[in-house]
Amino acid sequence: MLDYSSRANRHLMQSASKEITTSAYATIEMTLCSSPATLVDAQGKLAREWFARAASSWIAMGLHAFGAQAAAMEPVRLMVAANAERLAG
Hints:
This protein is mostly helical. 93% of the residues lie in helices and 0% in strands. The chain has two helices and no strands. Helix 1 packs antiparallel against helix 2 (36-88). The longest helix is centred in the C-terminal third of the chain and has 53 residues, at 36-88. The protein starts with a helix and ends with a helix.
């Protein structure tokens, strides 16, 4: 279970680091816009890219949660299987 928790933590840290870097590049890109129209285009592009990254991160975190839950339940599953075998035999 600690392995899954550690992986989820690494994923969160990587995502946060990427978002900070992306925010810095986005700020620079928007300051270089020469007109309000190009600024709106840049903001729209950045918003679409953010949503794609966020959706991907949400899915990955859900998978990490499922893995951690399965790992937490493994001892219970093993005990149930052992008891079923013991009682059957």
